[in-house]
Automatic annotation (TrEMBL):
It holds the Pfam family CT_A_B. This is Allophanate hydrolase. One of its GO terms (molecular function) is hydrolase activity. Residues 26-304 form the Carboxyltransferase domain.
């Protein structure tokens, strides 16, 4: 049951998504979901949601909406100018919004995508357990101006300044600066013999044909020396493929489940999130990493997010206790 709704005045290129359709690949359906998974997780953590809850993904363009109930939201990912009724508010922190106030996020910089999570999340349709859009299946899609999205929970505005300060001063992990993309060796690296190292020699330019399915890049291409055709087979998200022609292809979360190009390398999960923030016309540089190093980095990232989650939970517990003592109501 919904408690209210957000009504969009300006929607830009916004969609409702989550961490993706994990059951999809077994049915031949792309996983899809938030392209910058880390930023999406942090947004939900900051408002006390489960990681997998639906949230808004904004790509490049501005968004503006009005809730008809009090909400608590958080904005993560690319930096933008967040305002509530014209007053600037911080990104990467929980922000209280009263019913009827106008929330706007404009001028995304330092990245391509931002994420907006609302405490309690949204009441939206799901397919195979996920609300992630899928253009092939015709499920989901972009939000339109004038559209309303149901919010599951109203969250009273936090008035106590001491506890608000605790909530708004969280040490939130930020996006790395620069676009250095870590990769592990792919299953077909031997097919490129002495030219595989070209991947790491110079930066690659991301082209305008890039999208959620994959990023196309130009640069010094490795040359496949092995003969024979590569049969269509399952490919992972993050596969670095070298198709015929003059472009490198890095598959992202909207990629098909199978493909038939040689896979030179595989982008690590953390760097895949970073690729989600690269704009066409920007350059990236690849860096080779061992599988053990990639696993260690992934473990460290999980520990960092878990520390943030525990910190947020402790603050919400204190706020709930205060709210119950003073008003008889909890934040939830």
């Amino acid at each position: 049951m919904s408690a209210g709704a957000l009504t969009f005045i300006e929607a830009g290129s916004t969609q409702v998504t989550d961490l993706g359709r994990r059951r999809g690949p077994r049915y031949g359906v792309p996983v899809n979901g938030a392209l910058d998974q880390r930023s999406a997780r942090i947004a939900n953590i900051l408002v006390g949601n489960s990681d997998v809850e639906p949230l808004l993904e904004l790509t490049a363009l501005d968004v503006e909406f009005v809730p008809d109930v009090d909400i608590l939201l958080a904005v993560t990912g690319a930096d933008g100018h967040l305002t509530v009724d014209g007053v600037g508010r911080p990104s990467n922190q929980p922000v209280s919004v009263r019913a009827g106030e106008t929330v706007a996020l404009r001028d995304l910089q330092g990245g391509l995508r931002a994420y907006v999570a609302v405490r309690g999340s949204f009441d939206v349709p799901r397919l195979l357990g996920s609300c992630a859009p899928d253009s092939v299946l015709g499920f989901g899609g972009r939000v339109a101006a004038g559209q309303a999205i149901a919010v599951r929970r109203s969250t009273p505005v936090i008035f106590n300044q001491h506890f608000a300060a605790e909530l708004y001063c969280l040490d939130v992990p930020r996006l790395p600066t620069g676009f250095v993309i870590d990769v592990t060796d792919g299953p077909d690296i031997a097919d490129f013999a002495g030219t595989a190292g070209r991947l790491f020699d110079q930066p690659y330019l991301v082209t305008p044909t890039s999208n959620h399915i994959g990023l196309r890049m130009t640069g010094p291409l490795p040359e496949r020396t092995a003969g024979g055709e590569v049969l269509s087979r399952g490919v992972p998200v993050g596969a670095v493929e070298v198709p015929p022609g003059d472009e490198l292809l890095v598959l992202h979360r909207g990629r098909g489940v199978t493909a038939g190009y040689p896979v030179l390398a595989v982008v690590t999960p953390g760097s895949l999130d970073l690729l989600a923030q690269v704009r066409p016309g920007q350059r990236v540089r690849f860096r080779r990493m061992s599988t053990s190093g990639a696993a260690a980095r992934a473990r460290a990232d999980r520990v960092e997010l878990e520390a943030l989650r525990l910190r947020v939970q402790s603050v919400f517990s204190a706020l709930d206790a205060l709210s119950t003592a003073t008003t008889g109501r909890t934040l939830s």
